[in-house]
Amino acid sequence: xxxxxxxxxxxxxxxxKVLGVNAPQAVAWRVxxxxxxxxxxxxxxxxxxxxxxxxxxxxxxxxRWYERxxxxxxxxxxxxxxxxxxxRLVLTWDxxxxxxxxxQLNTEIEVRFVAEGxxxxxxxxxxxxxxxxxxxxxxxxxxxxxxxxxxxxxxxFARAAELGGAE
Amino acid sequence: xxNADQVLxxxxxxxxxAVFARVQRGARSVQEIADGMDVSRPAVSQHLKVLKAARLxxxxxxxxxxxxxxxxxxIAAVRDWLDGFWDEALVAFKAAAEQEAVKERKRx
Lengths: 167, 108
Fold this sequence. Notes:
Order of helices and strands of chain B: HHEHHEEHH
CATH topology of chain A: Alpha-D-Glucose-1,6-Bisphosphate, Chain A, domain 4
CATH class of chain B: Mainly Alpha
Largest sheet of chain A: 7 strands, antiparallel
Shape of chain A: globular
Number of domains of chain A: 1
Number of strands of chain B: 3
CATH superfamily of chain A: START domain
Helix content of chain B: 55-70%
Number of strands of chain A: 7
Radius of gyration of chain A: 17 Å
Number of helices of chain A: 4
Oligomer: heterodimer
Largest sheet of chain B: 3 strands, antiparallel
CATH class of chain A: Alpha Beta
Shape of chain B: elongated
Structural class of chain B: alpha+beta
Strand order of the largest sheet of chain B: 1-3-2
Largest interface: A-B, 44 and 34 residues
Distance between the termini of chain B: 49 Å
Strand content of chain B: 5-15%
CATH topology of chain B: Arc Repressor Mutant, subunit A
CATH architecture of chain B: Orthogonal Bundle
């Protein structure tokens, strides 16, 4: 599960997520960048008319980030700003609140891959510059994040799960 | 506590989940819910009280009976909680990366 970093430093212009992955850093990086189509929720998060079959990241600074439809069409999502293999990635997400590509939008997604062992990687994701959505910032933040405090909710659930059956 | 908290707490109990599953099959009375379960009728009433507080079930009087039915409010609260895009995407990413790591280890 993902968790939210300290709820105390809430910033309405960014969403932060941290999760532990049981995989080596290089594998986590490769699955994130080369195999995005295998995990990106393409059924709900795509903008083209055609059914999306893949999400593609061109592996270089300035590379395009786009979805590919089953009919071969492509729809751009953003581009690569920073490409530091296996360690750090910064992308722009240029889909506006009306689900249209706007190359000027430039919200940013930074992803860091921190090795915590041979088979353990901490993945830190920050989606920032949500102020670029203007008046629709809060609405869009709720699309990317949830309103609740994840840490607190998960703690409540874990507690309940542990107690479950003991009542 | 938010409604999603209450719902997750309420469903964290195995017996209560079983009670809720029975209510999901259609409106029924406490006795009908308790029938065939390994818990007493008062215990079922107690579980229903918690489910009602979490807005997972509602009750209404029908003649001399009180019937319990699903209240969609609680489920909607949990759905909202799960629906954040990055949570959904990253949980899927984690599963894909871990699957790949297992495959690589086998190849070695």
